[in-house]
Amino acid sequence: MKSTYIPVPPSSSSFPSFKRPSILGSYGQNEQGEWIEDPSSYLKTFDARHWFRQSLNKKPLDLNRGKVILKDENHFAREGITSLLEWLRRNPQTNCPDFVLFRGVLTMLMKTPYERREPWCYSVVKYRDTIYLKAEETEYARNQKDRISPFIQKTMEWGYKFEHILSQTSDSNVDNVINTNEEYDSVYRTELEGMAIIYGAEMDAIFKSQKPEVNVEDFVEFKTSKEFQNDRNYQNFVKYKVLKWWCQSFLVGITTIVCGFRDDDGFVRRIEDFSVRDIPKLEGVTWKPNVCMGFLKNLLKTLKNDIILTPNIVYNVSFDPPGSNINTYETDLDISHVLPSWYTENTTKS
């Protein structure tokens, strides 16, 4: 098994050409995690004017209210990119993209120059001039999942609860059961240095509006974070957390992130909105957007032009920090490991 190594060099190059992402369409997943064509009932609305008038010091948000049913992550890992492929099967593209993947993959790749702990691994295959990337579970991720503490599990539930509460304007539905299988997903298309990329992304909500159509800038991202107790808390926040926030939101054209700062008991007494454009300017930020996007550009170009050359061969592409190289090699896996037969048979006929 011959391996090829791609270095992860520090980059100080200028910001690459990145076309403003456009929305091609949407799909969703219901309470059972089943694919649905019309996700409009799962599109939440955020009334910013209402929430930023609230005095949370007097009446904090209690993220413990109600019940949260968390996703079966094993199910979604097995599914791979099939939900996005189902949308593509129903909506054939006249202009063949260079890459098809999820936003989460792009986010992980963008963070790589600054990643010191979390590895990643993808199965990659070229089919009919398009390269598809499917995330694989790493040993690190399995260990993290197996060792998850009750408190960390609770913080995950709090995140979903915060999203649910902020999509209401009263507390009448706060105690409802939240099923996190339910999703509203948008499909985006962009170009990075001339490479066409189609990617799916689960969206939190849109700003309350009277407009009938949904545009890129209408979406808002919800986040929670522990209230700062000391300078170290803040430094970790700007060094790690907002890096991921910026990558996620920049990729889909989101302009605003709304964060609820919670205590260890699950009470939010402060809500703050962050301009995605201004996040890199926060005091203490040491990462650079041009490094993230420059690395993403270089890696995708290398995969496209030098590595993923043989159609229908599944490659393994991985990164294991704190190493400085990305490892790639051909596998013996069938193409169906990434692309199910119902997809390849359908596109062959089209």
From TrEMBL:
Belongs to the DXO/Dom3Z family. It is an enzyme of class 3 (hydrolase). One of its GO terms (cellular component) is nucleus. It comes from Lepeophtheirus salmonis (Salmon louse). Its cofactor is a divalent metal cation. This is Decapping nuclease. The keyword Nuclease applies. Keywords: Hydrolase, Metal-binding, Nuclease, Nucleotide-binding, Nucleus, RNA-binding. It is found in: Nucleus. It holds the Pfam family RAI1. InterPro entries: RAI1, RAI1-like_fam. Residues 19-343 form the RAI1-like domain. GO terms for molecular function: metal ion binding; mRNA 5'-diphosphatase activity; nuclease activity; nucleotide binding; RNA binding. Signal peptide: none annotated. The gene is DOM3Z. GO terms for biological process: NAD-cap decapping; nuclear-transcribed mRNA catabolic process. Decapping enzyme for NAD-capped RNAs: specifically hydrolyzes the nicotinamide adenine dinucleotide (NAD) cap from a subset of RNAs by removing the entire NAD moiety from the 5'-end of an NAD-capped RNA.
